[in-house]
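User: Predict the structure for this protein chain, please.
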Amino acid sequence: MNSHALRFALPSLLGVLLFLTPVPWDGHLTIGIGIVTSWVRALMGDYGLQLVVGLTMLTSVMTIFGTVFRAGWIRRHARLKDLFAVPLVWLLLRLAGMSFGLIYLFQFGPELLRSESVGGAVFVGIAVNVTAVYVSACLLLPLLTDFGLMEFVGTLARPLFQRVFRLPGRAAIDAVASVVGASAIGLLITIGQYDRGHYTARQACSIALNFSIVSIPFSLVVATVAGIEHYFIPWYGVVILTCLLAAWITPRLPPLSRKADCCKSSAPAPLEPEIRAGSLLREAWRAALQRAEQSPSLREFFATGISNLAFFLFSVITAATALATIAALVVFHTPVFSWLGYPFIFLFELARLPDATAAAGALFSGFLDQYMPAIAAQGIDSAKTSFVLAGLSVCQLIYMSEVGVIILRSSLPITLLDLVAIFLLRTGIALPVLIVGAHLVVR
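Assistant: Here is the predicted structure, written as structure tokens:
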């Protein structure tokens, strides 16, 4: 095996083992990066909350310097400018996230914000764990993207993705990384591939909003929270079918169908060469070796990982904690989503789902945070209704407390109105499929 083959095989194999291979650990199945994440979480120990709140403070202070005072030492550095010179709305979100964190940490101010059901759930239950995932995953993510695995898998998957989804074959690795690892990992891969000119705007947006599916471990957590874990295998089968159907339909409709079919640099779509019959595996191997020949040095490898990590820590975490806190307050302590769902009570009753009022009130809550429909299902006695709400937690895909923040802060040409439109489209596609699945599976 020559040097190029080794440069492809060894890092890519390590990436597959870490991100894509289920392994038994501590009495249950997980993936290698999950084990690394648990080690990072253990290193954080009892100071995870303090570290997260400290991160929100650092982010907010740097953003004030970069945005309000327009500090030259930030604006002259392209990466610092991208992270800390932001529009006003992002500055306000970062200040809100810092404020919410300080209120919970020091236990002062409004009781709801310092309660375990709001502040504790957001900063301890979500933010600390998500930070541990980012630290471990971002530093190792180039193993999947920079040594030829994208080219190898993409070539093999090209016929399916081209014919069914009108997407490049390399999009398969984004989808697999999301399902087995985490949706944020798949998103990061997609954004990086768009920035490098491997995807057009239409392709990147379609992949990001249809294949950044929440991971299998998270799906099991959703099913457990909703009280339907004993239906997990058939429920997850219905969820995957629903997501594939949505991925087939939504790119063919506005707003995704109207995105430009050119790359970030305004270059036309990169062409994937035709593959002769019987040569698919050979072509995949050749493409992987060509990429491995240009693979990064050790220094470049860690520079890419640190750049990925900085994006998540400074652009995502603080704004996401603000949005997750607001989501918890709005969904569980105001009637807003009950009002939005009121017209759909009749639909749930027509579908013969019990607790129609509670289910309709949770219908759109997933837009703010992915946990919300599943948490609402906890208070519902009907397994069929919980089946549907748990499915929405996974299939709606777009939630502002993480995915929405990542996308809006990225280079992808997607607006907030686009996210709302696609969320509603996915909900409209997913709901009838999940209802039929609930009646077929739950007896």
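The chain has 23 helices and two strands.
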